[in-house]
């Protein structure tokens, strides 16, 4: 067998551990400096990007990108929405244009049917978002059991998915109560 004969460099490191420590230290420093330079290069490449002159970064383009998906408008001349033919899942509820109250104008008596047709039918016509469907005795029974004053309170203040006054804040309390009476009478 052959014996290993160390060369001059190996012999020098083995006999001088200080030289070995210096070599390891210089290697570690070189590695750290290399990492720092790499990070600086990466940051500098993105930091020097300018958005000036970029059409996607103009004020109008930014406003257009962050604008709301839909807007709601109240049309005072709008007709009452047609009753839905099929129930719609709560996640698929469409925004309806809600006309202001036409009932009880000029001191006239509140007309529950008019208020229902103008506002309440949007949800109670098809039973959207858990609203008891108009005329459905089984769906209305547990609500009627709590009492009409309780139903008035829910209709006036809102509960769950139902907003106060069915989302039509311009309705008078008497109009809302008349609409509740109209729906309750249809379910008895």
Q: Proportion of β residues?
A: under 5%
Q: State the major sheet.
A: none
List the total number of helices: 7
| Average pLDDT metric | 78
Rg computed from alpha carbons, rounded to a whole number of angstroms? 38 Å
Number of structural units classed as domains: 2
N to C succession of SSEs: HHHHHHH
Helicity level, as a percent range? 40-55%
By secondary-structure content and strand pairing, the structural class works out as mainly alpha
Brief synopsis:
The chain has about 190 residues and is an all-alpha fold. Helix content is about 50%, strand content about 0%. The protein folds into two domains: about 10-65; about 90-185, Cytochrome Bc1 Complex, Chain D, domain 2 (Orthogonal Bundle).
Characterise this structure.
It is a single chain. This protein has 188 residues and is mainly α. It has two domains: 8-65; 90-187, Orthogonal Bundle (Cytochrome Bc1 Complex, Chain D, domain 2), CATH 1.10.760.10. The chain is built from seven helices and no strands. Helix 1 (8-15) packs across helix 2 (17-47) and helix 4 packs across helix 7. The longest helix is centred in the N-terminal third of the chain and has 31 residues, at 17-47.
Layout of secondary structure:
Blueprint: H1 8-15, H2 17-47, H3 59-66, H4 112-124, H5 137-145, H6 148-157, H7 173-187
Helix pairs in contact: 1-2, 4-7, 6-7
List keywords for this structure.
50% helix; mainly alpha; 2 domains; 188 residues; Cytochrome Bc1 Complex, Chain D, domain 2
């Amino acid at each position: 067998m052959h014996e290993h004969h160390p060369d001059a460099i190996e012999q020098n490191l083995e006999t001088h551990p200080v030289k070995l420590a210096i070599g390891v230290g210089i290697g570690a420093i070189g590695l750290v400096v290399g990492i720092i330079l790499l990070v600086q290069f990466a940051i500098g490449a993105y930091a020097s990007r300018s958005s000036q002159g970029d059409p996607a970064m103009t004020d109008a383009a930014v406003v257009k990108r962050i604008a709301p998906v839909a807007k709601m408008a109240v049309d005072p001349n709008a007709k009452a929405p047609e009753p839905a033919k099929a129930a719609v899942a709560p996640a698929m509820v469409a925004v309806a244009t809600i006309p202001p109250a036409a009932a009880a104008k000029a001191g006239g008596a509140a007309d529950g049917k008019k208020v229902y047709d103008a506002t309440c039918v949007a949800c109670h016509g098809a039973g959207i978002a858990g609203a008891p469907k108009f005329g459905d005795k089984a769906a209305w029974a547990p609500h009627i059991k709590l009492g009409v004053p309780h139903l008035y309170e829910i209709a006036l203040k809102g509960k769950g998915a139902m907003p106060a006054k069915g989302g039509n804040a311009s309705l008078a309390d008497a109009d809302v109560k008349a609409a509740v009476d109209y729906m309750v009478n249809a379910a008895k």
